[in-house]
Model the fold of this input.
Amino acid sequence: MSDHTHSHGHGAAPTDMRSMNDAHAGHDGHGGHGVHDKHAGHDPEVFRRRFWMTLLLSIPVVLFSEMVQEWLNYSLPEFAGDGLIQPVLGTVIFVYGGRVFLEGGWAEIRSRAPGMMLLISLAIIVAFVASAATTFGFFDLEFWWELALLVTIMLLGHWQEMRAIGQAQGALGALAALLPDEAERVTESGQETVALADLRMGDLVLVRPGGRVPVDGTIVEGQADLDESTITGESRPVAKSEGDTVVAGTVVAGSSLRVRVDAVGEGTALAGIQRLVAEAQQSRSRAQALADRFAALLFYVAVGAGIVTFITWTLLGEVDQAVTRTVTVLVISCPHALGLAIPLVIALSTAVSAKQGILVKDRLALERMRSVDTVLFDKTGTLTRGEHVVSGVAAVDGNEDALLAAAAAVESDSEHPLARAIVRAAAARNLAVPAASDFRSIAGRGVEATVDGRSVAVGGPVMLRDRAIQIPAALQETVSGWSERGAAVLTVVREGAVAGILALEDGIRPESRAAIDELHRRGIRVVMITGDARPVAEAVGQELGVDEVLAEVLPEDKDGAVADLQRRGAKVAMVGDGVNDAPALARADVGIAIGAGTDVAIESAGVILATSDPRAVAGVAELSRASYRKMVQNLGWAAGYNLVAIPLAAGVLAPVGFTLAPAAGAVLMSVSTVVVALNAQLLRRIDLRPGRS
Done:
């Protein structure tokens, strides 16, 4: 056939992962709090065990407190040595329960990065020294029970905080869990069960119905539907057969497949996705940098406030209040909520988006997406399918189905993209395609075969010119209309006479109009860029309702078009396939690679969409705005809490009878952390799947 030349390239689907889990195993901790490397290695289980043990030890310390007995109007029987219960158990609590804080504080001193662990350490050290001094008669201050509750509550707060962080980072483990532990390798003597690590490139594996594909590979035998939702976020099963590629972690339904291994371990797509998630969760945002500076400043503010508080109450002649107020100030000003405000949002938003087919490579690009006011779509393969579909059929005798069936019969043995489009169109109409024989290709002109005993040829203008055949006048107007809008026009010739014509065009995705409408609803302009002739581009743009069309733009000039939009004051998100528009993706404020499937090796894009559905772009905008909103809310809460809590802890309302005990301060500090964590967890409810944003 082929006056119409088509070249098709497919991005490789590289990049799995068991080892990825090990690589990130040390990130259970929290810390300054980059989800959180400053205290990396702090296992929530350690805090859980220490909390329960410290709680048990704290019960007798509190019960034997004379102050508590007086408050609650009860008394315990006296016995020899009962005076040692509080100091002995209190010391054990300080050493055993407070150890993690003391070690963390010392680590902050050594790294010259004072933070919350040092604040907590100072608070419990002051409380312990004051309690011991009272026991030896230097102070008249009953403080052992305050120390016990303080350490217990701090352990509870840290345990819950790291549980929240662990849940956010659980996306890495969840991705690793998509892989089976073993695979069935096909050998000459049958099948053998082997560990994934024993598989090699070129091996043949058997995947049974309901099983997960263990590797990236190519189907060599069988056909089945595959659930790829864990990779692309699209819930519809995808039909696969011989020659199609499959991805590790997807689920086979219907029948067994034999798959040739193309990639294992770190080379699989699943491993690449996990790397992206891990890198994005560890990446810093502008808001995080601000929060870190504020947290560092807060340490000095807290220490300064503690010193001023101690001096003020001492000058007022109330040394016991000076100690109590100072400890409360140090405890209540711990920047836990501030340190957790941003990293937890980053971890959760990244994990949630990855599960729904949005892979964040550049955290700052995602942050910039909220301010984007113009989305520039590359037309081919983005708003259109990137493959031809039959858009028009016109038969001389009016029997369009018979014409299409005859053309499909001739094209059934051809692998040309236009031929495959004709065959698909006949199948979509459920036409009975007759058998063809004597198939022959006419280089550069078309194809010809015998159908129902008659010669049928399908080709373009060159074939007609060579055979001196004219298109009937009745079809001339139709041909002109199709040609003007950029369609490829093929002629079906039967026994030397024109039987009809077919129009083939790059089909517009059915979701494209909805995608553009959704962006318009969010106040975002939509611009389409293409190398097509202006009449063709304008026709597509009008059908889709875009705001501006940039036509006849060569691939190497696309980044210039982005720069021109930016000079006009636009904040631009460029959406393309990441191949011939890589410079434009890099030039844009936000580069979004769409339809990448499992190819995560696209360097020029800040955000990668596994799906080909352009409606997912609105999901990126929603994710950006939702995560930024949570960051602002968390920072506002954390900063506001400290502004109010520190003066209260220092005792500014003591003249009116309101003071905060250290244990109450610890409760408030922990509550502020829980509020921030719960607010971030609300991101789990966001639905970014196309059409549901």
In short: Residues 1-41 have pLDDT under 50 and may be disordered. DSSP finds 26 helices and 22 strands in the chain.
